[in-house]
Design a protein that fits this description.
11 helices, 28% helix, 4-stranded mixed β-sheet, alpha/beta, L-arginine/glycine Amidinotransferase, Chain A
Amino acid sequence: MEALPAIDGFSLAPDWRSSARCWLAWPGRVETWGAAFEQAGRDFAAVARAVAEYVPVTVLAPPGAAAQAALLLARRAEILGSEVEDAWLADFAPLPLRNDAGEFAGLCCRFNGWGNRVHDYAGDEAFAAWWLQRLGLDSYACPLTLEAGAISGDGQGTLLAARNVLLNANRNPTLDQRQVEDLLALYLGVRKVIWLEGAPLGHAGDGQLLPLARFTAPGHVLCATAATSALPWQTVLEHNKAQLRAATDALGRRLEVVELPLPSVGGDVARAGGLPSYLGYCLVNDNVLVPGFGEGRDGEAAGILSNLFPEREICSIDVGVMAARGGGLPALALMEPVLDEQQRRLP
């Protein structure tokens, strides 16, 4: 009989868990960055050095990039050779599963280059199983094509999910909504799915949800809003806010929705295909690493996040050109959970 996480007592772990290490992947796909390829390496290194102030960092470097990575990282991070091509590591990494005993496992979902937006992604696709084996964690294989940036869980059975990723013909063409929800229940322990619209298709991330809405705690959701109707996702933001305010979670609670304005640079970056958003923050133990855009709303966003995470320090990180080509820190950073040594089985 096929092993199923929910039957074995596992469910999707929330992102406010403790972390032992951050894993990042060097930007290796030239066509993703175009003329900004060299700048992407410099900006990525700056992000890695900043994250290393709070947690140990391991950077996966593709062939030919190790020397550049070593120079720009200035010994602030461990470097491992890898066939991974894309910097958005979390999207094709295993989803973290946890049971009531606090034990972790990993869920390996299918990956097809963000709906075949990129090709030759074999190195990306093989990463999840390799990483779980390296950590000595149990692995489950899920038949869904799914990226981490398309979902957000509350750790209590409720899932926010991007309709234009999971229900898109370029990810799961043979499955309808009911079938997808059944698989989410079996593999992620989900009892309630709140369907939202992700970023407009054709933009970087192609339908991703995390720049627009995510759980900050059980029953509490952060929702992106915009001060101008010029943004191509204004309709999406209004729709998501209405959906969230009308929704209840798996325990029947009405959600508490907190609005977080997008940075005012959003229009310019959006026209370049990016997803600038303060929801691209990353929780690293006692810290909240927040993307900074060098503008007045940086302070407003820091204040809102400080109220949501009063026991954590707010730390701004300049994500540079990353904002104009993809997502925020959650798409870049794979956070390794703190493991009990009795659970870690060395390969």
